[in-house]
Design goal:
The protein has about 700 residues and is mostly beta strands. Helix content is about 15%, strand content about 35%.
C-alpha cells in the first residue's frame, strides 16, 4: 500500500511522467522532477563491460552484458537472444568507424539488478520506492563482478584486431537502429608486443572515464553531491572498474556516456591520426602501472583528460620513460592532477581509490599530486591546472620561431586555435609557473582566460598556456596544449594551423624528423634507428653522444648536422640529401667494427685531429667534401675510406690525408678530384701497412701528391 500511495502521489504532482518509458529510454531525462534521482538509478536498455579495459592483441575478450529486455513480471528474469557488432574507432562519428564483424554475433543476455549494501536486489520498476526510503545502490564501489554478472560472450580470437579503441554495439534482433534499444561497451586492444607496429603510443584516460562514471550510484565528484545520493553521502573514495559506463550529465554538460569520455576527447584525435598516415598503438593508463613496457616507444601521446594517475604510472613516465629520453605530448589540460591507488591486480585493477575530503568551495585534498613529496605535476609536464576559463578566445603566439610552428606562417602575437565548437583554451586551463615549470620551458602561446577560480597563487589572472621544453640531460621533449579544445580544433576550428602543429609534434617526437640540439651522453645516448629527416640544423653538443644504427638520415637543403660531440655509427648508415655533415674541431665520428657510413650529403671535416675513429672492417664512403685548413683526415688501420666516382674533395691549407688502412678512389665512371688548393699541402700520405687504390683521379696542387712512408 505504501508503494502504491507514493506512486500515486508522484503521478498527481507530475502527470506527464511516463515511468516505464523513461526507464526504457537512452534519452538522458530525469524520471522524476528531482534531479538527484535519475543519475543514481538510471539503467540503459543494454549495458555491459569487458573483464579488462584493455586486452592484448590475439587474446580473448570477455563481455558481461545486462539488458532490460530480459525483465519479466514480479522481478523474474529470463534470457533473450541478442546481437553484437564490434567496431574500431577511426572516425569523428560512429557512422564512419570500422566494422570488424560484418556478420552479427548472436548471444544470450539476461538482466542484473542493482544491489544495496545488504545485497538486496534493486529493480528499475521499484526505484522510486527505494529512493524514497533511502535504499541506494553500491555497484559504483563494489562492481558487477561482486554482483555475479556472468560472461555473456567471449570473442575468442583477436589476432586480426590491430591495436586500437573498440566498442561493441548491443541490440535485439530487428532493433539495431532503434536508439532506445541499443547499448555500447568500449574497450582497448593493446599490442601483444609493445612498439612492434608503431613507435608511438596513445594512452586512453580510462581512470578519468571511471572517475566521472556514475553507473551504480556514485562517482568521485563532490560537485555531484546533489546527485550523489548514496550510503556514503557526498564523499566517495572508491569507484569500480568492473561496471558499465552511464550517460551522465551535469548542468546540461555530458560528463560521460557509454563510451566513457571518448567523444569529448579522444575520438577526434584518433580519427585524425588514423586518416592522416600515422599509425599508433594504444593502451589505457593503468597498463603503464601494470607491467606494459613503454621503453621502445619514441613518443607517448595523452590526447584526453588524463587527470588520475597512480604512483607507478607517474614514476614510469616521469622517471623511467622521460629518463630514457622518451618524448610525450599532452593534448588536453589538467593532467596528473589526482593521486589514486588501485585495488586488485596492478595489471587489471578491480577499482580505484582517491581520497577527496572535499566540500563545495574547498576543492582541495590530500590526494592532489602537487601536495606529494614527488612534487607538482608541472615539473615534468611544464604546466598544471589552475582553473576553468570563462572565455572563448584564441591562443596568442609568443614564440613563433620555435620549430613547432614551422609551416604555419604564424608570427608574434598571431592568433590561432579557435572557430570550432571549442577553442584550444576551452574548459580547464593549465598555466606555466616559474615555481614548478622546468627552467627552459618555452611559452609557445597563451590566452588570458579569466580569473583563477579554484587555486590562488601570486596573482588573480588565469591563463591557458601552451608550452614546450627539452630535457637537457635525457633529450626528452615535452609539449602541453594547456586547454581542452585541441582535438576539436583538428576538425571544427582552426584546423589548418592545429593540424600542421600536430604533424610537427608527431613527426619530431616519433623521430620521423629531428631539429635542434642533442644533449645525451654515452651512458644514455639518443639513438636514431629508423629513417629520419633533419628539417633544421642539428647539433650534437660538446661532450654529448648520438648513436645511429642501420638507417638513412636525410639532411634537408641548407641544413647542417653539426658534431661537437660524438656520432657513433652502427651497421649500414646513409646520409642523403643536399645538406651537410660537419665534424667540428671538438667533434668525433666513431665507426664501429663492420659498420659503413655513406655520406651522399656534403661532408666537412673542420680543423682538428683524431676526429674519425675506424674500427676493424669499418668504411667511410664520401662524395663531395671539404677538409678544412689545419685538419687531418686519418684512415685508421683496418678501416677504409672510399671516395665515390665524380667526387671533388677540397683540402685547405696545411691539411693532410693519412692512410693507415685503405683508400679506395676509383673514378672510372667519373673522374675524382683531390684538390689541395695550396701547393704547400702534403697531399696523400700512405703509411706502412696502408693501401691506396687510386684510378682515374686527379691530385691537384699538393707538394707531393701521393707518397709512401
Amino acid at each position: 500500500m505504501k508503494v502504491l500511495i507514493i506512486l500515486l502521489y508522484i503521478l498527481i504532482l507530475f502527470p506527464d511522467i511516463n515511468l516505464v518509458a523513461q526507464q526504457w529510454t537512452e534519452n538522458p531525462q530525469f524520471i522524476t522532477s528531482d534531479p538527484d534521482f535519475y543519475v543514481a538509478w538510471r539503467r540503459g536498455y543494454f549495458e555491459g563491460y569487458t573483464t579488462a579495459p584493455s586486452i592484448p592483441q590475439g587474446q580473448p575478450v570477455q563481455f558481461k552484458v545486462s539488458t532490460k529486455a530480459a525483465i519479466q513480471p514480479n522481478h523474474q528474469v529470463t534470457t533473450v537472444s541478442s546481437r553484437m557488432k564490434i567496431y574500431r574507432v577511426n572516425s569523428t562519428s560512429m557512422s564512419g568507424d570500422i566494422l570488424m564483424t560484418p556478420t552479427a554475433i548472436t548471444f544470450n543476455a539476461t538482466f542484473y539488478p542493482l544491489h544495496d549494501k545488504f545485497n538486496n536486489q534493486l529493480f528499475p520498476e521499484d526505484s522510486i520506492y527505494h529512493y524514497t526510503n533511502g535504499i541506494y545502490p553500491v555497484e559504483y564501489k563494489k562492481g558487477c563482478d561482486w554482483a555475479n554478472w556472468a560472461v555473456a560472450y567471449t570473442l575468442q580470437n583477436t589476432s586480426n584486431y590491430p591495436s586500437g579503441f573498440y566498442y561493441a554495439k548491443l541490440y535485439l534482433p530487428g532493433q539495431e537502429f532503434n536508439p532506445e534499444r541499443i547499448g555500447y561497451i568500449p574497450f582497448v586492444i593493446k599490442p601483444s608486443s609493445p612498439a612492434s607496429t608503431s613507435k608511438m603510443l596513445c594512452v586512453i584516460a580510462w581512470n578519468t572515464y571511471q572517475a566521472y562514471n556514475y553507473w551504480g550510484g556514485g562517482s568521485l565528484y563532490w560537485w555531484t553531491g546533489d546527485y550523489d545520493i548514496t550510503s556514503e553521502g557526498s564523499s566517495i573514495e572508491t569507484v569500480s572498474f568492473r561496471r558499465p559506463f552511464v550517460y551522465h550529465f551535469f548542468d546540461c554538460c555530458p560528463l560521460s556516456t557509454q563510451f566513457g569520455q571518448l567523444d569529448q576527447r579522444e575520438r577526434n584525435f584518433i580519427a585524425w591520426v588514423e586518416n592522416n598516415g600515422y599509425q599508433m598503438e594504444y593502451c589505457v593508463d593503468s597498463d603503464i602501472s601494470g607491467g606494459f613496457s613503454t621503453s621502445l616507444y619514441k613518443a607517448i601521446i595523452f590526447p584526453g583528460h588524463s587527470e588520475y594517475w597512480d604512483p607507478v604510472q607517474r614514476s614510469n613516465i616521469e622517471n623511467d620513460y622521460k629518463g630514457e629520453g622518451g618524448n610525450f605530448a599532452f593534448l588536453a589540460a589538467n593532467n596528473c592532477y589526482w593521486l589514486v591507488d588501485y585495488k586488485g591486480s596492478s595489471s587489471n585493477p578491480d577499482s580505484m581509490y582517491c581520497y577527496k575530503p572535499e566540500t563545495p568551495g574547498k576543492p582541495d585534498g590530500d590526494y592532489l599530486w602537487r601536495n606529494q613529496t614527488e612534487g607538482p605535476e608541472g615539473q615534468f609536464i611544464g604546466v598544471q591546472f589552475y582553473g576553468v576559463n570563462n572565455t572563448n578566445e584564441p591562443q596568442i603566439v609568443e614564440n613563433p620561431t620555435q620549430w613547432i610552428f614551422n609551416g604555419t606562417g604564424l608570427s608574434f602575437h598571431s592568433q590561432f586555435g579557435f572557430g570550432g565548437a571549442n577553442p584550444i583554451a576551452s574548459g580547464e586551463s593549465d598555466m606555466k609557473r616559474s615555481e614548478y615549470s622546468p627552467a627552459n620551458t618555452v611559452l609557445l602561446a597563451r590566452v588570458l582566460t579569466g580569473v583563477v577560480q579554484h587555486y590562488p597563487y601570486y596573482g588573480d589572472d588565469l591563463y591557458a598556456d601552451m608550452t614546450y621544453y627539452e630535457d637537457t640531460e635525457t633529450n626528452s621533449r615535452v609539449f602541453a596544449a594547456g586547454g581542452f579544445g585541441w582535438t576539436d580544433c583538428l576538425f571544427g576550428g582552426d584546423y589548418n594551423t592545429v593540424r600542421t602543429i600536430t604533424r610537427n609534434i608527431l613527426d619530431h617526437f616519433s623521430l620521423k624528423k629531428y631539429i635542434g640540439n642533442i644533449y645525451t651522453t654515452l651512458d644514455n645516448p639518443l639513438e636514431w634507428d629508423s629513417n629520419i629527416e633533419l628539417d633544421g640544423n642539428v647539433n650534437v653538443l660538446s661532450g654529448k653522444y648520438l648513436k645511429i644504427t642501420s638507417t638513412t638520415v636525410s639532411i634537408d637543403p641548407n641544413v647542417v648536422l653539426y658534431t661537437d660531440g660524438t656520432v657513433e655509427i652502427n651497421g649500414n648508415v646513409t646520409f642523403d640529401g643536399s645538406g651537410s655533415f660537419n665534424i667540428n674541431p671538438s667533434g668525433r665520428l666513431l665507426l664501429k667494427a663492420g659498420s659503413t657510413l655513406t655520406v651522399n650529403s656534403y661532408f666537412v671535416l673542420e680543423n682538428g685531429t683524431n676526429q674519425i675513429t675506424f674500427e676493424s672492417g669499418s668504411r667511410l664512403i664520401i662524395n663531395d667534401a671539404t677538409i678544412e685548413s689545419g685538419a687531418t683526415l686519418t684512415v685508421g688501420s683496418g678501416g677504409t675510406l672510399e671516395v665515390k666516382p665524380g667526387a671533388t674533395v677540397l683540402f685547405g691549407s696545411g691539411t693532410s690525408l693519412v692512410i693507415n688502412g685503405t683508400l679506395s678512389a676509383n673514378g672510372s665512371t667519373g673522374t675524382i678530384t683531390f684538390d689541395f688548393v695550396e701547393r704547400n699541402s702534403n697531399g696523400i700520405q700512405v703509411n706502412s701497412g696502408g693501401t691506396a687504390n687510386i684510378s682515374y683521379a686527379d691530385i691537384l696542387n699538393a707538394t707531393n701528391g701521393i707518397y709512401f712512408n
